[in-house]
Design brief:
The structure is a homodimer of 205-residue chains. Helices cover 75% and strands 0% of the residues of chain A. Chain A has 205 residues and is mostly helical. The first copy, chain A, has 2 domains: 46 residues, Orthogonal Bundle (Arc Repressor Mutant, subunit A), CATH 1.10.10; 132 residues, Tetracycline Repressor, domain 2, CATH 1.10.357.10. Chains A and B meet through helix 1, helix 6, helix 7, helix 8 and helix 9 of A and helix 1, helix 6, helix 7, helix 8 and helix 9 of B. Chain B binds a DNA duplex (30 and 30 nucleotides) through helix 1 and helix 3.
Chain lengths: 205, 205
DNA sequence: ATGAAAGTTGAACCGGGTTTCAACTTGTGA
DNA sequence: TCACAAGTTGAAACCCGGTTCAACTTTCAT
């Protein structure tokens, strides 16, 4: 699970390779701990013992329990984006792009249920990070939808319609991730195909 | 905010009118406390002082902090359902029914942001209640979609497609509630109309 | 009227987890 | 080689809120 270093709390960045390695160990351990136990049942001791460092070392890199969590949210948010981005290159058309995005997202959720949980829990532990995550995700979808309009592949019903569609698509993806990725298990391609058919043609007739 | 009494913890039901009144006060206070502060920053003292009862009284009706929360989740789940149900009677057709359901849900979220928050937080505090809430909600949508198929108003692509559509619609509703009900504010009818147009006709062309 | 059941009270107990810190170790540049 | 900066350590201080309980008050059926 390679990961570039996430910015720790202000003024607490590691200054040597040794420090970087330790920070990375703590972040990896925190992901496990929070993912398995949730924010509250997690403890700093739990994190540091998984990371095999002393309790105090934690505070070399983070100001508080909330701070690691926030760092993790930024990290995970980036990971989701970076996972999906390459998978939607070279789609047949703009709506097909959304199918691929969902399929890619579902596959990501399969492998990283902890990430799903952490982003969800951010609503309560790191509200600002949570909001940023979804607002930037929505903004990316809006951009894609505007391209679809520009290419004449989608009806243009004004900016509010676009915003509504983007959030609708995002909500759809998240809940399909919960139902078919975290709770159940279904072929990602199949689920994405069904959802996309609905998106493309609608339900009517 | 009238509310019928929610079952408290087992063997802790009130046996007199006085007890019922106290239980109701505690539940109302708990809704406020949890809605404003979130589960973890909430405290029993916070609840009982809002309710203007002594600390110990809390334990006459509930076994623990988690137990009130769970009772609240059941209650809120029922409230959402009861709010939407009458509003979708006598719709033009089965797909229009979904428009009305969303519109009704959005209006509910406007008035009760706390409820949105509590149900979301249930994912971590009362996972079983959370799952039940969404699974029963999805089941209701599935039933409606099956009716739509039966009436020849919707394409039939098999049971998986129906399940996917139901969860997609639900996720869409929840996220539109977050974006246009909790965070921002938009005319519920307008948002529901845009979302429903997408659902009915799809995005294409 | 009366006593047993139901309900109320809040001080005190209790455990657990975050955060601090001063001593110690490691690495590096001059 | 030496000294200073960076990093590590874990015991203990500190804090806080959930839960208990025995004494007290209210209600209500007989």
């Amino acid at each position: 699970m390679a990961r570039t270093i996430s910015p720790a709390s202000k003024g607490k960045a590691p200054r040597t390779p040794r420090g970087e390695k330790t920070l990375r160990k703590i972040l990896d351990a925190a992901l496990l701990e929070f993912g398995q136990r949730g924010f509250h049942d997690s403890s700093i001791v739990g994190i540091t013992s998984r990371a095999k460092v002393a309790l105090g070392t934690f505070y070399t890199y983070f100001d508080s329990k909330e701070a690691v969590f926030a760092a993790l949210v930024r990290d995970m948010s980036r990971q989701v984006r970076d996972h999906v981005a390459p998978d939607i290159e070279g789609s047949l058309d703009e709506i097909d792009r959304e199918r691929r995005a969902l399929s890619s997202y579902l596959r990501f959720v399969f492998e990283h249920k902890e990430v799903y949980r952490i982003i969800d829990e951010a609503e309560f532990v790191d509200p600002a990070g949570f909001r940023t995550h979804y607002e930037t995700a929505a903004a990316r979808i809006v951009t894609r939808l505007e391209e679809a309009v520009a290419k004449g592949q989608m009806r243009d019903d004004g900016p509010l319609a676009t915003e509504v569609r983007a959030w609708a698509i995002m909500g759809m993806n998240v809940f399909l991730g919960l139902r078919f990725g975290v709770w159940g298990r279904q072929d990602a391609e199949l689920v994405a195909a069904h959802a996309n058919a609905m998106l493309r043609k609608g339900l009517e007739r």
